[in-house]
Amino acid sequence: MMELVCPAGTPAALTAAVNAGADTIYCGYNNCTNARNYPGLNFSQKEMTESISFAHSHGVKVLIAVNTFPKAGEEKYWHQALHDAFEAKADAVILADIGVLDYATKKFPKMRRHLSVQASAANDFSIAFYKEHFDIKRVVLPRILSIEEIKSLIDKTGLETEVFAFGSVGPMSEGRCFLSSYITGLSPTSEGVCAPASHVSYKPYDNDTIKSCLGDVTLNHFSKDEAAPYPTPCKGRYKVNSKSLYLFEDPVGLNAMDILSQLRDAGVTALKIEGRQRSKAYVAQTVAAFRKALDSSSHKSLARAAEGGSETFGAYKAGWK
User: Fold this and answer.
1) Model confidence at 113, in pLDDT bands (50, 70, 90)?
2) Measured between alpha carbons, how far is 236 from 92 in angstroms, rounded to an integer?
3) Is the pLDDT of residue 260 over 90?
């Protein structure tokens, strides 16, 4: 049985995930050390310790994401997050930066280490490097690989593998996208936030049309009845040769529920639901649906929870283009 790894952006969402049937929950501290550093989200040390204790009492594991990249001279915040994760009795930490990995390996050799998708390790050579030098136990694969490519990596590395099963689909390789930082000055890799809410605005446009902006840049405009994605640069609609189109990626959500058996047969260890920035209702709905699919192979539609109200298999079927 594949492990179901579920998001929690708040203690309430963590409780919802536990009650809905999560095997494992991933979350982060309320600072720049994790890649979902949005206002009102994430955990204080007290909340983290209490939430982990609650999860453990229900037989559920908790992973802490310390998966952004420190700026020179600011590594103390990431080091502190590792100390806090150890004190809170996390089951593992999810890391991306080589310096942070090195610190964790030396200071907390018995603390289990997973390689974050932010490290963008997508071939057997890079995965072998992290395994050899930092004894990582699991790799979270980027959303750019086909099922065949995932199977090949698992066969070659013999490492636990976690893949995304539901959530956002980005056209960029994780941990390597800086589009948002050119507009806002805040990097998703260091400050942990892509398209920060403080820079997002929605303004009236022609008649019944609304435009969505990131800073001073208009990324989209849409009618009241049209599905509209959160305004990130990769999901913007741009004019090309006088035509308005989604140049990088349509607003569509990843949903691998119909191919779970293929991912299992490929040797995948764990399925990851994306969405630490989403509500506890979203967490409860998606976790319960995947729990049912894994336990009974019956499917429940999640189209309304998917970005843009539509779904895709992403690269699992088409590969990286």
Assistant:
1) very high
2) 35
3) yes
Half-sphere exposure of 129 toward its Cβ, with a 13 Å CA cutoff?
A: 11
Structure tokens at 181: 């930082």
The pLDDT tens digits for 213-253 are 999 999 998 887 777 778 888 888 888 888 888 888 777 88
Mean pLDDT along residues 309-319: 76
Between the two ends of the chain, the Cα-to-Cα distance in Å is: 31
User: Mean pLDDT over all residues of the chain?
Assistant: 91
Up-side HSE of residue 29: CA atoms within 13 Å toward CB?
25
Secondary structure of the chain in HEC code, one letter for each residue: CCEEEEECCCHHHHHHHHHHCCCEEEECECCCCCCCCCCCCCECHHHHHHHHHHHHHCCCEEEEEECCCCCCCCCHHHHHHHHHHHHCCCCEEEECCHHHHHHHHHHCCCCCEEECHHHCCCCHHHHHHHHHHHCCCEEECCCCCCHHHHHHHHHHHCCEEEEEEEEECCCCCCCCCCHHHHHHCCCCCCCCCCCCHHHEEEEECCCCEEEEEECCEEEEEEECCCCCCCCCHHHCEEEECCEEEECCCCCCEEECHHHHHHHHHCCCCEEEECCCCCCHHHHHHHHHHHHHHHHHCCCCCCHHHCHHHCEECCHHHHCCC
Give 320's contacts (C-beta < 8 A, 6+ positions apart).
Answer: 144, 145, 146
Tell me the C-alpha distance between 214 and 199, whole Å: 5
Q: Is the pLDDT of residue 190 over 80?
A: yes
Give the predicted TM-score (pTM) of the model. Answer: 0.92
Beta-carbon count within 10 A of 239 CB: 9
Structure tokens at 312: 């895709």
- Specify the pLDDT at position 57: 98
Distance CA 171, CA 221 (A): 21
Place of tokens 């995932």: 150
